[in-house]
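User: quick one - fold this with S-adenosylmethionine bound?
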Amino acid sequence: MVDNPASQALAKAPRTFFMTVRDIAFWLRSARADATLGRLQSERGLEQAFDELYATSPDPFGAALPQYRYQRQKYQRMLAMLPGRRYGDVLDIGCGLGVLTRQLAPFGEKILGLDISNTAVTEARERSAGFTNLEFAQDDVMAFDPGRRQFDLVVLADTLYYLAPLSDDRLKTIAGKMHDLLAPGGILLLVNHFFFTVDPASRMTREIHNAFRWSSGLNQVAEHKYAFFLASLLERAPWQPVAAPVVGRTANG
Ligand SMILES: C[S@@+](CC[C@H](N)C(=O)[O-])C[C@H]1O[C@@H](n2cnc3c(N)ncnc32)[C@H](O)[C@@H]1O
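Assistant: Sure. Structure tokens for the protein plus S-adenosylmethionine:
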């Protein structure tokens, strides 16, 4: 458990950053992975493209590589943002190799990592042997149907770009899907990279976060800018019993 409930003021994030040589190397690596993915996707579709990417490059987004601070700090800061409570059911969408999923293990009863790539899911399972409350499933998030299961915490980090084209309608549909996956009172932690400049990726990130913030049924609890990502914490309105209609008394009782 962490000790900063959403209701408390969160620490102010610094507003300016400098990039180290390693940061630049990390973003070049990610750009290469995305370029390979784009080429594969046009030939074989998204699922096959991610499968092939993970098969040829074991950690294409540098999630577990200690030399890159972005991923390591992103996970630490995301966990520190979570309201201090114990979560029943947790869903990590676009879990990749399960690096963050494993770090979520102490926060919940049951954690489900979901990814479109079967190769990534198989690897995540192998890397998570010994974690008794983790499970992994392969599916496209937009097709994912958990039945009556709803989640007290849903994490959606650096995954939405792959659901492009992200038109206003599409963003509304995705936000609606997140709402339906959440239990009443449940928390969505949304993270996307952000560079504080007018580059297209940062503009898209701002649009994504605004669409979620203004979507019906999700209330923004906090937003932070970090090096180099934007993080929003959103809450699904708690369930409220429908008040029974008040039957008025007549003059005769
Ligand atoms: C850049 S990685 C992010 C991994 C992790 N969430 C993180 O923050 O380190 C994006 C992941 O999203 C997965 N993904 C992409 N589109 C998806 C979709 N439609 N449904 C489920 N997973 C998807 C990819 O396979 C990939 O593992």
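One thing worth noting: Helices lie at 21-44, 46-56, 69-81, 99-104, 118-127, 168-181, 200-213.
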